User: Fold this.
Amino acid sequence: MIPAVLPTYNRAPLSFERGEGCWLVEADGSRYLDLGAGIAVNALGHAHPRLVEALTEQAGKLWHTSNLYHIPAQERLAAQLVAATFADTVFFTNSGTEAAELAIKMARKYWYDQDQPERVEIVTFEGSFHGRSTGAIAAAGSEKMVTGFGPLMPGFVHLPWGDHDALEAAVTDRTAAILIEPVQGEGGIRPLPDQCLKGLRDLCDRTGALLILDEVQCGMGRTGRLFAHEWAGVEPDIMMVAKGIGGGFPLGAVLATEAAGAPMGAGTHGSTYGGNPLACAVGSAVMEIVADPDFLDAVNRKAGLLRQRLEGLVAQHPDVFEAVRGSGLMLGLKCRAANTDLVQAGYAEQVLTVPAAENVVRLLPPLNISEAEIGEAVARLDRAAGTVAAGLAAAG
Ligand SMILES: *Cc1c(COP(=O)(O)O)cnc(C)c1O
Assistant:
């Protein structure tokens, strides 16, 4: 019999009652060190006092009015994002998928308004993930995501990762935009080298194509800059944000330059909940904390420490691990053993990690993880790797 909850997830046999910082606690009091952070959502860990305060204060005043009216909390968060980034304007959504939908519409509308309605194609890359809507699965195009859901939305051109010649050939006078994650998340923590992001920007400047960055997972301080593209010193035309920006409250956003955003006038797009006062009150508090240069410096220090400790872990378990990769506190352990075995063994050591493609185990801890917790995390991963190595040895 089908469960009451539609079984689209293979869930681990764990459930949590509360959270404190980097820790998740089961009803019986067992404490798990959370290196997944709800897939990079709990950027400030669980039950951060400033976020709890922002949410409860707003909850006592006003939950929802709709975008028929001005929403001061939304205007405030938009102003914070505009001040801190390349963007001139922001549209709020409830998720990353919805941000992908608007980014696609925005790129097409831009060319429609330029009297080039044939420029509809969006170039995307193998291994990418942009969400689960019909548009977002068509954009990513992987077999696993699209099988059974055709006909797919047309207009996406899928390229292999890192093939410059294919890229040059694919961008034509029908290309509306290039859409890419600066660091692939689901795809296995694959950072796009800074040089390549610069190259994409140049290609877009030469051809007029818009550059859309999906920073849903790698943005909001995750790599040690507020947004990952800042490392390369280039700016997109459109950027998708979600996950960390709400710190656990559903919130997403599309950020755009004036040129890219201007064609989206009244009536061209909408959302009932997007930019709701509760979400934006929390988002503002997250931005206040994460956009602070001292906070980002601390993320970089901790990232350096975690990476160094993980390099040691990989060296100690050469049968289990192959390499560390990633950027900032968005790290991947490329495995020789099955990544899911390591994630499982982690549960026994009460440490939570997340599998990704390419046999990678993802580590996306809260950005405010302490140095002591990093030590504890690596000690637990070390024991988990020991279990996996012993299993490999027993299997011969
Ligand atoms: C999670 C994710 C999305 C989709 O976000 P949802 O909030 O799950 O809809 C899109 N792009 C990237 C890079 C993601 O990691």
Q: What stands out?
A: The longest helix spans residues 371-395. The radius of gyration is 21 Å.
